[in-house]
Amino acid sequence: MYIGVSTKMYMGYRHSMSWLEQLRSEVDARPALVAGRVVPFVIPSFPMLPEAARILDGSPVHLGAQNCGWAEGPWTGEVSPSLLVELGVRLVEIGHAERRRHFVEDDAVVALKVRAAVEAGLTPLLCVGEEAVADPAVSASFVFRQISAAVRDDWATAARLVIAYEPVWAIGAAEPARAAYVSDVVAHLRDLLAEHGLAGLPVIYGGSAKPGLLPELRGVSGLFLGRFAHDAANFGAVLDEALRLDEALSLPEALGLPN
């Protein structure tokens, strides 16, 4: 189960450092995270990455980046996946709706970035989601096509992804998408992925996600939090929800009983 947060461009440098220290304290207060069954991740903006790596060193938190280029060389203003690896980054966000809309990143660009990230040893956190509320099966088909395009139908590459299902209409909204809707979309998506042996691919939900949502979801592998987790205590609250769910799922398994 993955629980993560992106700061986008909401925080300055000093604010980011203070927040990262608070977040590290929230994680350290939960030693069960060391088991690795619940994986916290943090995605600050590029200038914060070296100091973020220092603050998070020795913790179970995975450091992420908000974007990457698709190659080294003469690409002014871009950041290569290989440089991110040098900085201690483990996963990289690709294909967010804001980048698709405002930076005109189409499926071809997303596919280039996914391939470059995988080749550098990074885990792509692939953002996908429909533009408007639809029948869950229709939304799942749209999302599946986005995944297929991102890996160019290379399903071995798809196995390296973490999928962030973020309905575009829910990003920045006052409330997240309804839990029943999200669960149904993810269930249909898993059926489509199962045709390629990927029914168990991590699919996390993002889009105004906040404390209280995770326990209501079915078949979802975690949450990708936004502004609600800019209060580190809220991040800790969601970690607690994830740990409780993991414990509830693990107990029948430990006793040899069906979940």
From TrEMBL:
Gene Ontology molecular function: triose-phosphate isomerase activity
GO CC terms in record: cytosol
Top EC category: isomerase
GO biological process: gluconeogenesis; glyceraldehyde-3-phosphate biosynthetic process; glycerol catabolic process; glycolytic process
Keyword Isomerase: yes
EC number(s) given by UniProt: 5.3.1.1
Keywords: Cytoplasm, Gluconeogenesis, Glycolysis, Isomerase
Family annotation (InterPro entries): Aldolase_TIM (IPR013785), TIM_sf (IPR035990), Triosephosphate_isomerase (IPR000652)
Known partners and oligomeric status: Homodimer.
Protein name in the entry: Triosephosphate isomerase
Organism: Arthrobacter bambusae
